[in-house]
Amino acid sequence: MSTPTSRSWRRFLAATMFVFLCSGSTSRTVDAVQTSKLQVIMPKDLRKPGDGYDHRDALFGIPPYGGSIQQQVIYTGDTFCGSELNKKKAYPHHKGEWKTPFILMVDRGDCTFVQKVRNAQKNGASAVLIADDMCLCDRQTCKPDEEAGEYCEVDEPIMADDGSGSDISIPSFLVFKEDADEIKQTLMDNTQVRVQMSFKVPAPDSRVEYDLWTHPSDANSRPIEKSWGVAALALAEHASFTPHHYVYDGIRAGCQDEEGNNQCYNLCTNNGLYCSTDPDDDLDMGASGADVVIESLRRICIWNLYGKDDGVGEKWWDYVTNFIDQCDSFEEYQDNPALSKFNDPECVSSALLAANVDEQKVNDCMTNAGGAGEFVNSTNVLLDKEISDQEALGVVLIPSLLVNSAVVRGSLSFSTVLKAVCSGFAAGSEPDICKECANCQDEEKCVTTNGYCPAKHTDESLFGIGAKGVSIQTFAVVLVGMLLVFAVAIAIQHIRQQNQMREQIRGIVQEYMPVTEAQGQDTSLALPQDDDDDDGDANGSGPSSFSIT
Fold first, then answer.
1. Cα distances (angstroms) measured from residue 88 to each of 71, 74, 84, 126, 184
2. How many CA atoms within 13 Å lie on the side-chain side of 169?
3. Cα separation, 382 vs 475, whole angstroms
4. Residues ≥6 apart with Cβ < 8 Å to 362
5. Could you say which of 125, 271, 286, 459 has the lowest number of CB atoms within 10 Å?
6. Are 177 and 123 in contact (CB under 8 A)?
């Protein structure tokens, strides 16, 4: 009889074997379409026609999709694992401090790619070129010096994230040895080298198709899964989204024996056909790899029911967000995985209800596809399609984003995804949300405020116009009303001033020109009589008065 300890040990060995086989079954991601370009601008003899220099993009950092970086190159002369740039060792030699911006070239080796790029970023670099130090065995243009103990490398190196690259905001390329050596030698000869790094995705027409590969327990996918729904709605009919869920092929991973029995315990469903890694790293408690497979199938069905037709899937995004908030609680219960609600049917039902998703329709979809579970022996057509699609595209890294069949590199932040999707539209066909927000300083805030970017509306923002203030129509009505009030007030003031002026004139006239009456005539404006006329002739014929009226 086996003891609990022996059972746990066998489970551990099975899990270790599963992870090893899965990681070794595919060694690289196949890029269907190149999304970046590296070209030397000067000196001219280093320029390469066509697509420029062959290179590989880093899987971290934030590439400026739809844009480019063109700067002078500084070669550190070493692997740059230290934090400070030694200008005495750098090429070409330069008097004084290196002024930003510049592109830094460093040698491969001694530390992780992330550490090198982080050091470069701290020293003001706008991008990084990693110079490979080993030839690839399948490249005829690069031959290792066997006498010097050099050897070739069978597989291409992948500039992967070491788990700490979330703070990296600059792009980086790996340049193969034969090309890197030529560029380094030019710099070491104290010759200026200027390169351009361009980033784009194919833009065939006015509708973008983009796909996200992930699985329900991937922590790196949660931020974009929670935030991107509002952008999917804003893009509306201009873009078509498709979510994919990475499921391991159990047969290929060795989880089903010749008799059809599951060899990987609770990491797999359907007798070892469909598998995933344990989300909480505890094979005896909490959620299992099989639970991840079942949740993947559930999300596939939700998409087919509520998102496949319009390519937006508002209810799908609502469910995923609700599930992450309510049920995906590994971090909260990492000390006690048994308390996790990942596989709690009540939590799943609550998330479905909150998203207004019909649970019965989803369950029927899962069953009709072939089902998934410990006691299910049949294949599942939906999970089989996911496996065939990921093998056809060569997807091995999670999360992965494809825009118009081109793999997007770098960390999948909201900013990176929006720039990549918006750069996939043909020139002149970009929707308003891309025109306003793709180059905004805070892209996510711009999208959530219906396309209002404060940096692009400085004049309007001074008056509080736009999505963050009053509407333009309301502002216009208030402005017209204020102008009318001012006009009436000015008219009333003008009338009052006119009346006051008449009263003042009348007072002045009465004070300095006294009123007299003579012979029944109105002589209010008469001049006073001359005293010399009092002795006129007896007939009174002399001038006794004179009137101006």
1. 21, 12, 12, 21, 16
2. 8
3. 54
4. 298, 301, 302, 305, 352
5. 459
6. no
Asked if residue 45 lies in contact with residue 74, where contact means CB atoms within 8 angstroms, the answer is no
Tell which residue, 337, 225, 246, has the closest CA to residue 296.
246
* Residue 544: both structure tokens together: 């006794």
List the beta bridge partners of residue 348: none
Cα–Cα distance for residue pair 157/172, rounded to 1 Å: 14
Task: Please write the tens of the pLDDT for every residue from 377-431.
Answer: 899 999 999 999 988 887 878 888 999 988 887 778 899 899 999 999 998 899 9
Compute the 3-state secondary structure of the chain and give helix, strand, coil in percent, each to the nearest 5. Answer: 40, 15, 45
Q: Residue 445 carries which side chain, given as an amino acid letter?
A: K
- C-alpha to C-alpha distance for 443 and 434, rounded to whole angstroms: 10
Coil, strand, or helix at residue 346?
A: helix
Residue pair 153/135 in contact by the 8 Å Cβ criterion: yes
pTM of the model: 0.68
**The pair of three-digit structure tokens given for residue 500, joined into one six-digit string:** 């006051």
Assess contact for 548 and 525: CB atoms under 8 A. yes
* pLDDT value at residue 24: 42
Q: Give the span between the Cα atoms of 18 and 263, in whole angstroms.
A: 9
Whole-number Å distance between alpha carbons of 391 and 251: 14
pLDDT at 158 (0 to 100): 84
Main-chain phi, psi angles of 450, to 5 degrees: 60, 40
Q: For residues 47 and 344, what is the distance between their CA atoms, to the nearest angstrom?
A: 59
Question: What are 362-366's contacts with CB under 8 Å, separation 24+?
Answer: 362/298, 362/301, 362/302, 362/305, 365/301, 365/304, 365/305, 366/294, 366/297, 366/298, 366/301
Report the alpha-carbon distance of residue 232 to residue 447 in Å, rounded.
Answer: 10
Instruction: Centre a 10 Å sphere on the Cβ of residue 197 and count the other Cβ atoms it contains.
Output: 26
Residue 85's Cβ-count burial label (10 Å; 0-12, 13-18, 19+) is buried
